[in-house]
UniProtKB/TrEMBL annotation:
Similarity comment text for this entry: Belongs to the TRAFAC class myosin-kinesin ATPase superfamily. Kinesin family.
Lineage: Eukaryota, Sar, Stramenopiles, Ochrophyta, Bacillariophyta
Annotated Kinesin motor domain residues: 1-279
GO annotation, cellular component aspect: microtubule cytoskeleton
Alphabetized GO MF terms: ATP binding; microtubule binding; microtubule motor activity
GO BP field: microtubule-based movement
PROSITE patterns for this protein: KINESIN_MOTOR_2 (PS50067)
InterPro entries associated with the record: Kinesin-like_fam, Kinesin_motor_dom, Kinesin_motor_dom_sf, P-loop_NTPase
Name of the protein in its database record: Kinesin motor domain-containing protein
Amino acid sequence: MYSSFTFSVLEVHDEKIYDMLSGTNMASSTENNDGVRGVEVENPLSPEIKQTSKEKSKSSSKPAPKSSKLEIRTNYDGDTVVEGLISIPVTSAQDTKKLWNESLQLRKKRLQDEEDIDAYTASSHIIMTINVISTNVTTGVGTVGKLQFIVLAGSSAASSKCSLVKSSKDLPTPKIMGGDNSVISDTTNPASTNSRLASDTEQDWCFANKSLSVLNDVIYAKCQYSQIIPYRNSTLTHLLSDTLEGAAKVLMIACVSSDAEDIHETTNTLRFASRVRRVVLGKAIKHIVSLA
């Protein structure tokens, strides 16, 4: 039996996808990319897809890096993938740790222009994926799978910021489901334009709350055994659609506070965790492919 592993990391912020491995030394030495950094795209469901490069090449001796567009797609096997995302082969835990630490350093440099780095990180989601292919060298039959580590945005931070606009009469009524205080701001409603928060930071935190609210909607729909699951209502849930289906095993760790002033956020988090426990994903199955 022979096994191979690849590692990828992406960040979701403000409904955009960032390839965190772009610009790392190992990524730059890969034939299929030239060290592109800070690639971002809008939610692919939006009418327009906008791609920008956060950093231009500072060395005139190097050719300009090729642009890479990240798009969420469904491949021929029915799996949700990010087209254009860098995936680097690794052979040990040390390789993975080295890539992770380097990606964090590049992310820190990218965020130097942010006015409030803590606010940015609190409203971002990070998805680390290790893809595994195991092959029987005799028969040529293999199995494929992936291990994902997902760090969700801080729900307490998003809730405290978005609560500033709850009382505005121009905004839609907050959506509350099953006791979970899930607020969804209608950012596409022209009538709410004058009522939006002025700073980008406040808007970003509301976007994080939207992502978590859509995740809450997905969990609620699965608890109700609904035939329609709103995975595509946000970039985060679209990316997690495979993880939340029956062919996967999921472990969610809810982080709560014991401080009295955090009782509201702690209660909501525990309610959400209780709802997640009621979701039935079914039995995980092997994904067998012929590599002969």
